Amino acid sequence: MSTTSSVDATAGRIPDREDTAQRLLRTSAKHSYDPAVEIAWDAPLAPDRYFIDPRRSSLYGTALWDRMSEQQRIDLTKHELASLYCMGIWFETILMQMLLRHVYDRPKGSAHARYAWTEIADECRHSVMFSRAAEKFGGAHYGPDWLVHQLGRLLKTTSNGTLSFGGAIYVEEILDAVQREQMTDQSLQPMVQKVSWIHVVEEARHIRYAREETHRQWPRLGPLGRAYSRFILALVVYFSTSRLIDPKVYAAVGLDVDEAVAAAAANPHWRETKRFAAHKVITFFNEVGLIAGPGKLLWRRAGLL
Ligand SMILES: [Fe+2]
Ligand SMILES: [Fe+2]
Questions:
Q1: Dist CA 56 CA 248 (whole Å)
Q2: Which residues, other chains included, contact 131 with Cβ-Cβ below 8 Å and sequence gap of 6+?
Q3: Beta strands in the chain (DSSP E)
């Protein structure tokens, strides 16, 4: 099958595992940041600045958006970003456990294991950073609903190598795309720019590690393992993409939740934002052959294909 041969061809070009880990460890030593000291947590928020580019809001361009005051729009982006951060914490917690499971059987003196521990330490700092920022923005209590919370528990306990790293890449890449815009957008809250910058710098290493590892793990699977992994990955993609915004954010800014959820679901601008966020990772998954089979329906339902 063409997918298999393209994977084999790609696998031959994947750098040595230890070489990559050594390089990532050197970069980590030079460019790692402690949000506890890097971010001015006590600085007041600017009253007139957006938290995310309004065009990236889930309600931008809808009739509901037109009826909202400027202050209400700013507040909505504040709560939407808090929701994104809480979603980030949810997935980073899953990733930390998957990385710990990945490293459990590895040689303790290997650079590959040392880098995995280093990445876990990065994610610990990120989750603390997201938690403090979300609290500052009025919503450290957002997150996925009960069902998705339980599915996350299942994933972090049972994922195979492809799912650990494929799932990690998906969530890391979509957050990264949005944060790359935020970190250079001078019109946003200064704290948002700083949080985004720290996350983008450190995630670049994680994405490299996870991409290469996905290329190593995928060819080890047989046809059944591949079909299973494609389908579970599609579930991860569907649920994480459709839960980016906790419906509670709409209540927080005085909107009718049902009306706002329906408006966001039908909003072509919001769909476009999700496509923009997933653009790079879809290209990567297609290269590997991870988007195929019945799971494609879930990719479509998430509005991504
Ligand atoms: Fe992170
Ligand atoms: Fe990460």
A1: 18
A2: 85, 89, 140
A3: none
Torsion of CA 205, 209, 215, 217, to 10 degrees: -160
Evaluate whether 129 touches 194 at the Cβ level (below 8 Å): no
- In whole angstroms, give the CA distance from residue 184 to residue 181: 6
- Percent of the chain beyond pLDDT 90? 94
Residue 2 has pLDDT above 60, yes or no: no
CA of 165 to the centre of ligand 2 (A): 10
Burial of 14: CB neighbours in 10 Å, binned 0-12, 13-18, 19+: middle
How do residues 7-59 score in pLDDT, each as one tens digit? 444 556 899 999 999 999 999 999 999 999 999 999 999 999 999 999 999 99
Residue 123 Cα to ligand 2 midpoint, Å, equals: 6
Domains and CATH numbers, the chain: 2-29+70-301 (1.10.620)
